[in-house]
Amino acid sequence: MGNLKLAVLALLLALPARAETTALDARVSYDISQAAIGGRVSDHVLTDHAGRPLDLARLRGKPLVVSLVYTSCSTVCPITTEYLRGQVKSARKTLGDDGFDVLTFGFDANGDRPAQLAAFSGTHRLADIAGWRIASADPDTTAAFLEELGFSYRALAGSFDHVTQTTILDADGVVYRQVYGEAFPPQVLIEPLKELVLGTRTRSVAPRDLWDRVSFLCTVYNPLTGAYRFDYGIFFGIFFGALSLLLTAIVILRLWLERRRMQRPESNSVS
């Protein structure tokens, strides 16, 4: 009996520290994820695929798409990464190569070492895309980072049960939107990025930001092609609408000036 107890204890000690016997509750996980929106991510220092420190503070200044995976996954995480890679390339065509950055974060603090990260990056050709980084962190930093992102996971025997979540941070590191699933409609990712990349500049009154305002209004999703495009119909509608308003204003101004001119002699004769 004593030997049986020792064997059970040894088995429990061999399991990951966060191992659970039940799956995640989808409703609870979703609520935790949504509750993170509006919270600011701390300036954690991660470790990239080359073993170099990666300070999140250096990634401020533009939106950041955070993809959460673990490199030993052979099912969902590779599919998610490949799909996200395609969507990021599409978003680059719409928003520019330097409009936002991407971070693939390995949340398996014990298994996602630099060598594994480098292999994962090479398999999915992440280095080919400008502004895409891959990193992991020590257990304490990982736990804090994932909590701020609202990410739920549980360690199972040799694997993880986790939410398939991609988080969009704004330029200040605040959680702006959560995207779920290994595949999602392109607009679910690109619309929030469009709001962050172009939307902030549409509030500017500077003449140099005029084109950003036009681009924000005229860049639309085409469900037939599954891609974003610049809708010249909207552009010409805005242009001719503005021209019509301008011409109307000119006509009204001329009529007002003409009326003033005609009234001026009458006022002089009365005096």
Describe, in plain words, how this protein is organized in 3D:
- The chain is α+β, with helices and mostly antiparallel strands.
- 48% of the residues lie in helices and 19% in strands.
- The protein contains 8 helices and 11 strands.
- It has helices at 2-14, 26-35, 76-95, 114-123, 139-149, 186-202, 210-218, 232-270, and strands spanning 45-48, 53-55, 64-69, 101-106, 132-136, 153-156, 159-162, 165-169, 175-180, 219-222, 227-230.
- A hairpin with a 5-residue loop joins strand 8 and strand 9.
- Helix 6 packs antiparallel against helix 7.
- The chain is elongated, with a radius of gyration of 27 Å.
- 26% of the residues are buried.
- The model is unreliable at 1-21 and 201-205 (pLDDT under 50).
Entry summary:
48% of the residues lie in helices and 19% in strands. It has eight helices and eleven strands. The chain has helices at residues 2-14, 26-35, 76-95, 114-123, 139-149, 186-202, 210-218, 232-270; strands at 45-48, 53-55, 64-69, 101-106, 132-136, 153-156, 159-162, 165-169, 175-180, 219-222, 227-230.
Number of helices, counting only DSSP H or I runs of 4 residues or more: 8
Give a count of the beta strands, DSSP E runs of length 2 or more: 11
Which stretches are poorly predicted, pLDDT < 50 over at least 5 residues?
1-21, 201-205
**Percent of residues in beta strands?**
15-25%
Mean pLDDT, all residues? 81
Order of helices and strands: HHEEEHEHEHEEEEHHEEH
Major beta sheet, strand line-up: 2-1-5-4-3-8-9
The gross shape turns out to be elongated
C-alpha-based Rg, rounded: 27 Å
Give the % helix: 40-55%
Cα distance spanning the termini = 122 Å
Largest sheet: 7 strands, mixed
Structural class: alpha+beta
